[in-house]
Design goal:
With 484 residues, the chain is α+β, with helices and mostly antiparallel strands. The protein has helices at residues 10-18, 24-42, 50-65, 108-115, 158-165, 182-188, 222-232, 277-292, 307-329, 336-346, 350-373, 410-416, 447-461; strands spanning 45-48, 77-81, 119-124, 144-145, 148-152, 171-176, 191-194, 214-219, 262-265, 296-299, 376-380, 391-393, 396-397, 400-401, 422-429, 435-441, 482-483. The strands form five sheets. Strands 6-8-7-15-16-11-9-10 form an eight-stranded mixed beta sheet, with helices on both faces. Strands 1-3-2 form a three-stranded mixed beta sheet. Strands 4-5 form a two-stranded antiparallel sheet. It is globular and about 60 Å long.
Length: 484
Amino acid sequence: MAEPLYYRSATELSQLMRAGELSARETVSAHLERIDEVNPDVNAIVTYLPEAAMEQAAAADQRFASGGWDGPLHGIPVAHKDNHLTMGVRTTFGSRIHEHYVPELDDLVVERMKAAGVVTLGKTNVPEFVAGGHTFNDLFGATRNPYDLAVTAGGSSGGAAAALAAGMHPIADGNDMGGSLRLPAGYCNVVGLRPSAGRVPTYPASDGWCGLSVQGPMARCVDDVALLLSVMAGPDGRSPLSLEEPGSRFATVAADGLRGRRIAFSVDLGGTIPVDPEVRRVVERAAHTCREAGAIVEEACISFDGAGECFRTLRAWQFEAALGDLFDANREWVRPSLYENMLAGRRLSGRDVGRAARLRTELFHRMREFLETYDGLLLPVSPLPAFDVDLQYPASVCGVQQPDYLGWMESACHVTVTGHPVISLPAGFSEAGTPLGIQLVGRHRAEDQLLDMAKDFEQRTRHAWTRPRSGASVDHRPGDGQRD
């Protein structure tokens, strides 16, 4: 039986609209009805523009009737992440400081999505200043996981991922520094791609050179991630790291992408992090799936020595550079842990930052050399199943105490500092029924190969097509953590 419109892929919706079998108004209306049904419980979309969206859809239909076609995302509804600037639409960054901020320009990714024909539904929830792997803030509250309203949807693109999983929109824009695309994708049974720096150019940006944080696509399937990447990617003179290759090269994904590949896997990043037994089993099953697909699979991993120091130093440095003055001027509105992150950056010496830059370069070359032998490295995207939505973060993983809200995220943060593209994929479910994901690291600037392997994995496992029950909520699982 065909899925309802709100669970159709963007690729299929586009084909139907291009063939004249579906209108933009029908498409957008179906998604608005779905938002009205499920968003009050999930709290994924925090600025909502139904009337404006229907006006945009009607205008798209009128252009189509006159022989026009806006682009590859013609009539596709999307709610943009609430730290991506949207001209004329409130952008809060999940903070009371920006509660009423309305930008006068679009982020470059939003600009490109609009030029490709998207219809803007609103904005999706984020943690305060997009800091952390759990989406909650004092302005809008917490986003809940559509598969179990009692647990986290992840973060910082938690609102985007939860909206995808619940059928509120078929594609989403996001960004990833320490796992902000990958962690929520893993917890919400969707796909999130962190591209190589420069693949998706960024503008405006307070630091256009670092590349620790990148923007990228998220969707319910690999084909839609590739479609959105084809729109987001490509050169732009305003972004100094911008790569010259056109985004159109990513528009289609090949089949059989795992056959003949050499895939390494590690359940714990080479013994670097504690990992829950349920997550270990999912990673091992994912490795077995790759082997069944015709890949040569071996248990192996690079050394992530120095990755934690590198990430924490560079993140704190960027926090202070980008937010220090704003936090000082509005200290009463800033979560104490965020203010301390900024102060950690202020306390750094030039020697500290220089050492982190050297470590980052070493980690890049370790991964680069490792992937001269292997085509991909398969890892857990998170070390534990989704935790209680009322916790700020899990205080321990498998009995190992975590120092702060970054501690449990090292499975994603460590990969960040290697500078390689990585995709988060649905890989199964916990005993409690919540999604678990894996991440697959690919060769530098080889997103096309990574997408090919990801699609083969997706087609063989079919986890991505397991939808949440409407209004699903089960009892909270006991656990320890830092409560609000």
